[in-house]
Amino acid sequence: MATSGTIRNDFRTGYAVQLVWNVASQDVAKNTSSVRVRVQLVSTGSSYNINSSATKNGSVTINGSTYKFTFSADLNGNQTKTIDDRTVTVAHGSDGKKTCSFSFSTAINVTLSGTYYGTVSKSGSGTFNTIPRATVFDSLTSASKYIDSVITYKYSPKSSAFYNKLVVKVGNSNLLTVNLGTKSASQQTGTLTLSSSQLSTVYSKYPKAVSAILVFTVETYSDSNYSSKVGTSSERKLTLTFPTSLVPTISNVTLSEAVSGLATKFGAYVQNKSKVKVVTSASGVSGSTITSVKTTINGVNYTGATITSGVLTKSGNISISITVTDSRGRTSSTSKSITVVNYTPAKLNSFTGFRALSDGTESYEGTYLSLSYSFSIANVGDKNDKSYKIEYKLKSDSSWTTLFSGNSYSLSETKITSSLFTIDHAYDVRMTVSDYFGSDSKIIDIPTAFTLIDLRSTGKGLAFGKVSEKDTLEIAMETEFFHAETPSSPIILQNGQDLNNILTAGFYVIPNTTVSGSLLNKPYTATSTGSLVVIKEGNGNQVRQIMKVCSKEDNRIYERVYYSDAWGDWKKVFNGGSKILWSGGYYMTEGHKITLSEAISEQVSGIVLVFSRYADGQAQNYGFVSHFVSKEFVKAQMGIGQCFLLCSSAKFGIMACKYLYINDSTITGHIDNSASGTANGITYNNSAYVLRYVIGV
Questions:
Q1: Hey, which of 227-231, 240-244, 475-479 has the most confident mean pLDDT?
Q2: Which of 213, 240, 339, 437 is the most buried (most CB within 10 A)?
């Protein structure tokens, strides 16, 4: 940058034409420079002169504007002759900078030492000193990360004559302006705190965010009316978080009984019967909207502004927590409580009876009944219904006659009936206890009088241990058989016995683990005890064996069939129901190999592979996907890789695939089971799923 300069053309030894410029002054307010420009003929020695009195033409161009003039080329030795002198105003750029172009053209049209010189010209440029313009924005800080804290800004005016304005924008809109006035040309410091209305404006523009970007600039003006802008500083930005107090509001939560009639009847929630309806009224804050409402009751989560719980299974004071989430992800919570009155169903704890004499002494020949009973009915705040009733009928009848009835929440007593029960007939006696919700009942048998053998008068009926009442055989005594005819008279299997040789129909038992371990052609290798049922089938030459294992864990059942002088293979027809053979949370990459607690061939049908979503660094209890694998397929294609497609929703949310090598007792993963990307137009994320369970079925 400079305040003066020369553009010169030495067109011949001793002679030159030059343009000399200098900045006479600068107008800061108008952003202009006053420039004096002179065009001169120059002789560089005493012997170099020009004798020419004719009028010549010339021109000078300054900053794109051309000015014409006339001159005389007459020149003395060592003379610098100005042939044009003018002063022009040149405007600077908006940044105060200016590079000005200059050129001249002079038609001197003279012959010097035999050589003719016509037009001499030259062009060039000069860079003027920069005129101070826009204020510089130096720094911007906040006292904390929150948007309602004190903000400090620093700026440096370039001219004390200029007026400064602080402009704060959010998005594309002005949030606030501050007229800073004139300041000295040195660094200045200012602070501001957004007002509540300004904060509300910011919040409303970001209904789904918890922070905002504020953009600061300082505008420079040449007048106190802030109408003539000189320039604008570069932007400074602050990303500030909304205060933690900016959360949605829960205005009301109403609780009511959801099961019709219970509120009117009991005026309270009833254990194991009531359901609670929860209606939550909530609203967002400063532009946000409510995106979810979660209600938690007894550890169970429900979603929605209006929910109905499951049956309330606990009594006492029950806490209900409600959490609402808005579009910013901010939450608010509240809790309510209800009292649930204890309730258990009406229970007939015991009911027994026998024939008796009038004083209650037990007698097979008695025509009275001694009836003992105990029952309980929950009072539910003394508002529950309560009743009990004892009825009887001949076994052959269908209608009942009431013996006793009453209204109590609990009783435990013995009653003697009237002499109503003849010894030649058997009776059913029924007791029923009832409350508002239901009833519990039990029927006891009252047999005829005891007689070892009784022949019916028709000659067609015979009874053992009772009076004959029907034209049939009746047995009222405990009975024992000794040849495996009934489950109560099984044959005991012996050490080393071969099951292949048992073809006689009947019931057999394995008495202990020693015998179990010695049996031949048993369907399992363990030494569990159990039972064997042999059934004749077809034409009598076909036999079915059913082996049941005595085990609380799986209660397995095996079957096989014999015909054409040969036994078929044992088939497991029940394994105690499905069971978990493995559980965990593996991507099933090439380094993952799981071992099942039982072989697939030991299952009735095969296995079910259960996958779930993996997110936030752990297996999640949602997004479950299950696949069945037949044990016959595993047997036929042992260790062959299989592909299992997975997706997170019915609308094909997150797509994934697992490739597994399945053997009878182990499953091995593949390197691609944690891969992600796009292939064949499908975006996949295999690491979004993990194997959770292998279930035998």
A1: 240-244
A2: 240
User: What number is the average pLDDT over the span 55-81?
Assistant: 96
In the block, residue with structure tokens 């002169």: 49
Task: Give, in order, the Cα–Cα distances in Å from 541 to each of 469, 536, 538, 565, 566.
Answer: 40, 7, 7, 9, 11
The alpha-helical segments, DSSP class H, found in 224-377 are: 262-266
Closest to 512 measured CA to CA, from 527, 499, 497, 522: 527
At residue 475, the pLDDT reads: 80
User: Apex CA 411: angle with CA 407 and CA 414, to 5°?
Assistant: 115
Residues near 563 by beta carbon (within 8 Å), at least 6 away in sequence: 538, 541, 542, 543
Taking each continuous run of H as one helix and of E as one strand, the counts in the chain are 4, 52
Q: Identify residue 377 by its one-letter amino acid code.
A: I
Whole-number Å distance between alpha carbons of 564 and 541: 8
Using the CB atoms, write b or e for 435-450: b if 16+ within 10 Å.
Answer: bbbeebebebebbbbb
**Closest C-alpha among 333, 326, 342 to residue 377:** 342
Check residue 526 and give its pLDDT.
87
Report the alpha-carbon distance of residue 373 to residue 413 in Å, rounded.
Answer: 6
pLDDT digits (tens, 9 = 90+) for 329-375: 999 999 999 999 999 999 999 999 999 999 999 998 999 999 999 99
Q: Which of 319, 300, 312 is nearest to 271 (CA)?
A: 312
CA distance 495 to 644: 49
Q: Answer left, alpha or beta for residue 202, where phi above 0 means left and psi between -120 and 50 means alpha.
A: alpha
Q: pLDDT band for position 481 (50/70/90)? A: low
Sign of the dihedral defined by the CA atoms of residues 28, 34, 35, 36, in that order:
negative
> Which residue's entry shows tokens 């900045």?
23
Ranking 11-25, 58-72, 251-265, 467-481 by mean pLDDT, the lowest is 467-481
Angle of CA points 134, 32, 69, to nearest 5°: 160
Neighbouring C-alpha atoms within 13 Å toward the C-beta of 144: 9
pLDDT of residue 484: 60
Pairing outcome for strands 606-615 and 689-696: antiparallel
Residue 689 has pLDDT above 90, yes or no: yes
Radius of gyration of the chain (CA): 54
**What's the whole-model pTM score?**
0.54
Residues ≥6 apart with Cβ < 8 Å to 636: none
Rama region for 553: left / alpha / beta (φ>0; ψ in -120 to 50; rest): alpha
Q: Between 318 and 469, where is the model more confident?
A: 318
Exposure string of 638-674, with b = 16+ CB inside 10 Å and e = fewer, is eeeebebebbbeeeeebbbbbbbbbbeeebbbbeebb
Give the CA diameter of the chain.
178
Q: Is the dihedral of CA 257, 262, 264, 267 positive or negative?
A: negative
Tokens of 119: 């037009």
Cβ neighbour number for residue 535 with a 10 Å cutoff: 13
Name 678's Cβ contacts closer than 8 Å, sequence gap at least 6. 684
Query: Which stretches of 472-612 are DSSP H helices?
Result: 513-518
- Per DSSP, the three-state class of 673 is helix
Of 198, 192, 288, 203, the C-alpha closest to 243 is 203
